[in-house]
Amino acid sequence: MRRLPPLGSLRAFEAAARLESFKLAAAELGVTPTAVSHQIRRLEADLGLALFVRQTRKVALTPQGQALLVPMRTAFDSMAEAIDDLIEEARPHPRRHVATLSATAAFAARLLVPRVAGFRARHPDWDLRLHASDEPVDVAAGEADVAIRYGRGSYPGLTALPLIADGFAPVCAASLPLRRPEDLARATLIHIEQLPWTREASVPSWEDWRQRAGLASLDIGAGISFNDEASAIQAVIAGHGVALLSLVMIAPELAGGTLVQPFGPVIAGLSYHLVFARAAANQPAVAMLRRWVVEEFAAAPSAARITPTGS
């Protein structure tokens, strides 16, 4: 007769030990952190052993916990695989795989949507779900398999892979007669209101650019304002004015001549990173998206390689 503690306690232990967090384990299991803590304390009481060292911001395994994790992880992996195989055999059609990639609305529309056809050709067995939101998703909690974020690359608890560095400069339609910074005095300035993802991302404003360019007399208060980046870009393409835009975001239009960067200075931005939970690095969806995204943007033009049209 097998002598086993309750399965719920073992499951809570395996998740918390694997993720090194009661909070992440709770998110994975669909319960509260308090419930996970209760299950683990019950398991420790049943075994008469301390399995975790509770610290202020994290938990660590005791030697006994380390010894228990390996067979528990193997056991739960084997059970999950057996159930997956059983369900797969019973399906009338092969099961399709779904991978979720999150990015800001503008990044998804301008830089990911044009690449969807290539994704389908390369990964016919996968369905791609693009999650476009200017509010960052909780990748660690499983709201997306991976996400593309703009920042300095410091994302606690996540692995961050650099994709492309950004920069900002005045950009307009090729038809507008802008040749030097002083020409902005007779142009319509297009403004982008602060977006959720720009609050801590050092996205420059027209005031930042005016100071860098040394144009003390430029009135940067007038013009047209938009509350989303994509609409501002469309207004610039339509010839309605000049905007301080991300050069990465409009790289296709710059390359095709639809838009021009008539002059500098270029203000260095931060970088786009691909982020995912460290504990999920080997999951099929994460591994597949990681390869695809990194390869897609390996040859993308970074702002550091974009020079003004008139230079």
From TrEMBL:
Keywords: DNA-binding, Transcription, Transcription regulation. GO terms for molecular function: DNA-binding transcription factor activity; sequence-specific DNA binding. PROSITE patterns: HTH_LYSR. The keyword Oxidoreductase does not apply. The keyword Acetylation does not apply. Residues 5-62 form the HTH lysR-type domain. Gene3D superfamilies: Periplasmic binding protein-like II (3.40.190.10), Winged helix-like DNA-binding domain superfamily/Winged helix DNA-binding domain (1.10.10.10). Belongs to the LysR transcriptional regulatory family. This is LysR family glycine cleavage system transcriptional activator. The lineage of its organism: Bacteria, Pseudomonadati, Pseudomonadota, Alphaproteobacteria, Hyphomicrobiales.
